[in-house]
Every structure is written in structure tokens, then in C-alpha cells.
């Protein structure tokens, strides 16, 4: 590759120690060897130890986690592997040129060289037929094969309303018409939304992905980078890096990484052909090896082979247990190898890969050895109903029978009447309950994202390290890779479902397919369904249960008119502008919500019935909960219909006027069932929260606790033991100001009867009508569960108390966050440690 700067990602520099220390260590080794020889002769030992103890599989053995004891043969990176290429736009880069639109009525983008970037401006002349500006840059390449390409990495910044950008391949010949639009490329590739807050962002787009188009049949001649905006806008390009696929697999030998096929992410061990990874393993009763095959390209098949050599075989030839040529790039080839004939024996198990062309990458996804169940550890099903507010479930007293199956489950186990999420919507909430750390401790939102720090282990990582098979099935991307929640998960599915209201059906099918492929136990699975998340599209036989088809059509038209009004549902203004009566509209929306809730409940009942039929129910711990209430998934229907609703002020959770302690926003279901271990029929009224669930699960499974956590185990309550004391529930939600680095947001508390919400560092440019009257708002949640009327004027004593309390909590969160700040060493002082221990955040 000629254009750009070669990075040479495969160069490895090895530094060896030299000098006197090396000689001293050598003499020491000689002395030790002599001593060991003397001991062996003295004791009459005639043989040497064959090596480290073999791996065992009393619980599922994840081979990709044991490179430290593996023997790797071959698996060399090709010497002629192409280099990654990088362009820095702090100086002119003539390789990237403004693309000439295919539609002759459009202009190319304007480009301006800045000191550190190339500014790309979408002008009025770049507007496409729908009125939106669009255009970009193009790179000519020397007839590349798209199958060799992995990613295009773009570093860019903008403060303008650039909505997204995408990749195109091979410029069209000739000219188009107005009706055809301005897209100058034959093939449309990956796309990404743009963060428009002025900060420098790094975007990674796949180069082997084609949106709605077949892949190119021939070679790639041009690669385009196109931007779209809603109006005239500019974006500054700091650098562009083009990464070949082999650059993602630059380690010689073997390594592991996350790979996606068929919408399923897997933890995959990879080798280069020819290559072999060997493990000494003691095979359990009814032993089996489960794995999936994967390849990067289809032109040269890879032969996958599994071999075994029993100890004591005298170095004989390995026995081939499995062999198959595989060349399906877009799918996983799930396979199982029977190891039962080796039960009780120690064998050297080999994972081999070869192909006609050396250096091809072979993927062994989630290679797992397991056997008959010998552990008393429970299977764990962590079932999250996304947006499933307790206020609209009959198991919590709602006046419609929306959750009869949850009622039966609650009768078999324990139910918590006052459980809360720790944030008001999916992304911060899920990150918190998966780590037992508050949102501010995890770093808050930075440029719209909250990535869980590497040193904050997730629930999946805890379970995987304990030998559990792990899987996640979610239809909400906010509960997935956006927060790095794929870590520690063997099989991870986060694709959406259309319509959302049938997500439980598809996710349950994914679960049973996984159980068929990996039938051993124990397992941990996290469901996060979107059946009751907006928009509500009830399915038969529940469609029509609470609302007639005719009325549903009328409501859909009202919904369209409200969206067109531009002020959707805020403070009733949207209803007024659209000429729609609020109460009948919201009543109908609640009816649709309730039908989707009934469907979710029914599917959950079917899942439980199948678990019982499969014989897994008696040793399964089931937890049913939610990530937030209905306030984030749609609207809080009860709140919208109240005549006392304030005429002004935002209803939605993201705006500063809406407290998170509001029942419809964060009160969630929490039901725990474990047959034979948790006595049935318990109801607990003490306030608890979702960050309590990680320590609870680890405690019930008799696994070690995290070094740092903010929740407390509910196991003493569930098992009828001493040692649990109620404490206030903390909620928080923060974002980091890109200009100042300050945390801005809210920290709140539910303390028995009282709820308090403290605003931290309000943004100075917040419009007057959205500002709070005072920093702390106070609510009587027993008499005002919707948190409509703050009592800050009537109870100054409580305002003073909770202001001091929440300020101390926030200070503690900031101290604790120092332990999870990537790339920074921030040791805590003894005084800070005492503060954190006093609050129960470290042990």
C-alpha cells in the first residue's frame, strides 16, 4: 500500500536483560538444579514430574482463559501481512479528496486546512432532494479486496448538527437525477452517529459491512467517507486510519477477542494457520467440548481439528476426534465433541487449524469443556423487564390483571415491595447494577457514553471467573456494548427486535438455542427484554385485551399528530397544539402498555414452565427485576392524567425538573425465587435498590465479593438470617462537562418516607423555565409518590439534613471514582479511606 504512513503493527521489539544480574541468576539456577537432583536421588525418585497439574472441569472450563498453561505450536503472523495506514490532517493529505456527487445538481463539500485538522463543510449546495446537506471525502485505492479490510477509524470533532457519517465503496459512473439522490457510491457501508459537543471523538466503522447492499463482486477501487447533517454544518477531521483485518489479530501464537456473527458476539480464541493450541485436561464424567468455528474470509477454507493424546501414551500420534473444513464468514459453525471415552483420564487436547494459504485466522468461539453436573451452585437467571414499572403490575396491586405469572412466582419466593433502580434510564442503570457501583463512581456520561472502567468487574465477569457459562440476551443496545457489558460473556446478543413488543419471544428462542449448544451447568444468563418499552405494539392474543382495534387506530393517528406538533407530551402543550384531549389519549396509551405487559408476563410464564419440564427449575435461582420504571420507556401514565399536573415544567426524566425518586420513574419489581432454598411467600417492605443484586447473587452462590461495591447483599433477608440492616437508597445520574470537566447532574435519596433530590453544579446556561427553584427538592413519598409537590419551604430542617447527607455521599462517590479512573494513579489518603469505609463502600 503506497498512500499514507505505514504503522507496521506486527513489529515486535524484544529486550533482554544483560550484565552481572544475568550471571548471578544463572549461577543460582545451577545451584537450585543441583539441590533438586540431590533430593531426587536421596528419595529414590526415578521420574520427573510431567509438568503443571492438569486443568479440571468440575464446572465448565473456559479454554480461552488459560493461555498461561497452554502450549502453542505454529500460529505465526504472515510475514507479508499488510500494514495499517494512517493520515494525520495537521498537514495537507492529498490522498483524500472531496467526492464529486453523482447527482450533477449538488456541489462537493468545501474543505479548509486548519492547524490540526481538515474542516469539511456541508453547504447549501450539497443539499439532497429531501433538503439535508450531504457529502464527504474519497480515497482511491489500488484494487483491494474488501474481505481483507477490517475498520476505518476516524478522529473528528464538531459543534454543529452533523447527524451521522457512513462509508461508501466504488464511485458510480455517469450521472444521476434528482430523484436518485446524491449518493455517488455503488455500495453503502457501515454508519455511525456523530457526537456534536465540540470534543474530539474516535469512531470505528466496519469495512466489511454493507447496509442493504450486496458486497462488491470485484475489487474495491474507492473508499468514501460521507457526512449527513440537518442544515449547513462543518466537521473537523484530525486523522483517518485504515486497518486491514489481520491487524486485529497481530499477536503471534494465540489470543482471544470478541467477535460477532449472526448478531451474536462471542469470546473467541484465535490462531493463524497452521497452528495448534494444546491443553492438559482431566476429562470429567460425560465430558464434552463445545465450541463454534469462525473464519474471516470465504475464498480459502480453514480445516478445524480436535485431537487428544492420553497421558502415558508414550508420545504417540494424537487421535483425531473432530475435523471439518469451514468457510462461512457470516455465521458461527456450532459443534460439539464427545469426550466421554476419556472420562477420568488426563489428556493433551489439541485445537488445530490449517489451510492451503498460510496465515489465515481461525476462530474457536467459547471453547468450553464440561461434564455431568457435580456442583451445588445454582443456575442463575437474571431477568430484566426493560421499562417494567412496578406501578403497572398486578403483582404490586395494579387494578388490572397484567402479571398473573409474576403473582405465582412471587408466591413461590420473595417479593420486595419498595425496590428502586439507581438511575432513571437504561444505560446508567444497567451499568450500575452490573457492577454495584453508582453512575458517578463509574465516571458518569462523557460525550454521551458511560463505558465501565476495566478495573470495575461486571456481574458476567464474576460469574465467568467462577466457572459459570455466561450469556446475555437483550434487545436494548443501551444494555450492551455501549457500556462494555460484553466482557466475560460467552454468548452476547444485543440486536433489536421489530416490533419491540415481541422481544421476549425472540430472546427466549436465543436462550434455548444456547442451552442446546452448551447444555452443561451451572450457567448465568441475563435477559433484558423490551416488550413494554415504547413504542407499544401488542401481539395476539393480547392485542385487543384492553383497547378495541378501532380505538387503537384513532390513537395511532393522535400519536402522529402529537409528534408533528414538535412538543410531544411536554406539560400538555403538545396536546393543545394538536387539538387532542389528554385524558383519552393517555388512557389509550396505558391500555396498549398493559397489553404488552400481559404478553411479557405470559412469555415469562412459558419460560418458567419449560425450565421445569427440562428439570432445571429445582436448582435455578431466578431474579425478576427492571432497569427503570415506565417514566423512561414512555410516559408515566398516572402522572400525565392527573388534573393536578403542573401546567409548566418538563415531564421526562432527562430534564432537571423531574426527580428520579418519582414512583413511576424508578420503582421497579424485584422477585427472587430459589426452590428449596428461599422460603415461599415472603414480602419485604424495606427500600432496596438494584445495586444490591450483584452482592446478593454472589452471596447466594457462595462466591467471593468484589473488593469495592456500594450495594449490600439481600441474602440474609432472603434466607431468614441475621446481619441485614436497612439503609437509604441512593440514586444518581451525572454527565461530565466537556469544557470544564465538572460533574453535573443529580444525586437523590429514598429514606423511608422521604425522598430528596440535590442538583450538583447546574449548567449556567440552563433556560430559566427549566431551572430548579432551589438546589434540594424534598418529597413525602408516602403521600406524594409522584413527587409533584416539594416540601422544601415547609420542612427546612429536613432540607438541611438531606443537603448535608447528599453532599457527603457525592463527595464519597468522587473519592471512590478515583479508583476507577482509566490511566490515572490516584491513591486515596487514609482519611478518604476511613470516609468510604464508614459509608460501607469498601470492606
How is this structure best described in words?
The structure is a single chain. The protein has 843 residues and is an alpha+beta fold. Helix content is 21%, strand content 28%. The protein is built from 15 helices and 38 strands. Strands 2, 15, 16, 18, 21, 23, 24, 25, 27, 28, 29, 30, 32 and 33 form a 14-stranded mixed sheet that branches. Strand 6 (110-113) and strand 7 (118-122) form a beta hairpin. Helix 6 crosses helix 8. It is globular, with a radius of gyration of 30 Å. Residues 1-49, 642-656 and 823-827 have low confidence and may be disordered.
Structural class assignment = alpha+beta
How many helices in DSSP terms?
A: 15
What is the percent of helical residues? 10-25%
The fraction of residues assigned to DSSP E strands is 25-35%
Strands, total number:
38
Kindly, what is the distance between the CA atoms of the first and last residues, rounded to a whole number of angstroms? 55 Å
**Over the alpha carbons, how many angstroms does the gyration radius reach?**
30 Å
Low-confidence spans: 1-49, 642-656, 823-827
Shape: globular
- Rounded average pLDDT: 84
Reported for the largest beta sheet, the result is: 14 strands, mixed
